[in-house]
Design a protein that fits this description.
By secondary structure, the chain is mainly alpha-helical. The chain has four helices and no strands.
């Protein structure tokens, strides 16, 4: 499994004025995804078994991974307002 340190990512990508809104948006997004994927995992598992549920969720994960690669800006340096304000070399 992959664990992304979202708190660090948000702090690094945004300035202090935007962090509250971004943390709230991330919270809403993750809970919305859970609201969709739990039933999406349950329905194929009860109808056709756990193997089909694994295949469905794997396909969803791959599709959204490809979508993320396509919509992420190619020129993103990873330095947001938070890094510029703090200094790129400092630890988070």
């Amino acid at each position: 499994m992959v664990l992304t340190p979202v708190g660090r990512l948000i702090r690094r990508s945004a300035g202090p004025a935007d962090r509250t809104e971004l943390f709230a948006a991330q919270f809403s997004l993750t809970h919305g995804c859970r609201l969709l994927t739990y039933p999406l995992a349950e329905w194929p598992a009860t109808a056709a078994g756990l193997q089909s549920a694994v295949l469905v969720l794997g396909a969803v994960a791959c599709a959204f991974g490809v979508l993320a690669m396509r919509v992420w800006p190619a020129d993103d340096t990873g330095l947001g307002d938070g890094d510029r304000a703090r200094g790129a070399g400092e630890d988070l």
